[in-house]
Amino acid sequence: MFLNSLLFYIILLISFSKIDFLLGTKKKVHFGGEHVKTFRFEDPPTKIGERDIYVRYGGKDVIIFNPKHPPNRLKKGQSFWHRFFFRRRHHPRYNGFKVESLLKRRSLSFKIWYNVWNQCKRPDCYSKHNFAKVYGMFFKEINLYRKLHRSAPLKYDRKLGMEALKEATKCANAGTLITFKKYRYSTLHAIFNIEYVPITIYKWYREVSMYNFKSNVIIPHAEHFSILVWANTTRIGIGIARNKNDIYMVFKFYPEGNQNYRFKENVHRSAYNKYNFRI
């Protein structure tokens, strides 16, 4: 008795689920396009699955399409949350360019750079609000390199920053770097395409590979590095200006670095130790 009731219930469910199809009232079209023909249940298509031609039907209407002229939609798209969590998104303007591909990955300097820039290394992130984030990240990166070479962290000086900004703006307006000679402090300036801004300090620091720690005079190919880590320097000011996709950057350091016969006491070797150095 129980089996008979169960069988009757299953048949009843199947009948109701197929009632639209049996009555011929289901008219949903799976694909939209130009070549649509009416399909009758009594007269199915003669060929299904022919090479490069597919027939999709279910209901009353059928469409035959060629891969050269596909329908607008072949399958259900992925959900918003799937795209949000699992797809890597790039700003369409930069075509997936990765500035970190230019860096020496297995180095401590890369570890420091990555710690500073990893969360905001795309132009559409750090260019907002006149590069406001870049000031802080430059400041943090410089002090981490100084810590590595046993130099005290710099303090940000607003007056130096205003002067650096004026010089950067003049350079941007002129479309070239202009040297402003000042004897009270050291000046570093650079011009980079907007995509390469994050590696400015990193490139200067990598001059350490050309520096001679036994020398007590300036090393021409490593003068940016020695200014960055000069122990007697205490304050810094930064200015950033833009001309189209070119970014002009000026850094002011006080007191002045790179003084001859004082290099040994101001530029120290790396003091990295995995037990006492924390980023």
From TrEMBL:
- Pfam families, sorted: CAP (PF00188)
**Do you know which Gene3D superfamilies this protein is assigned to?**
CAP
SMART domains for the chain: SCP
What are the residue boundaries of the SCP domain, all occurrences included?
Answer: 133-261
The secretion signal range is 1-21
Tell whether Hydrolase is among the UniProt keywords: no
Q: Which UniProt keywords apply?
A: Signal
Question: Is Signal tagged as a keyword?
Answer: yes
Q: What is this protein called?
A: SCP domain-containing protein
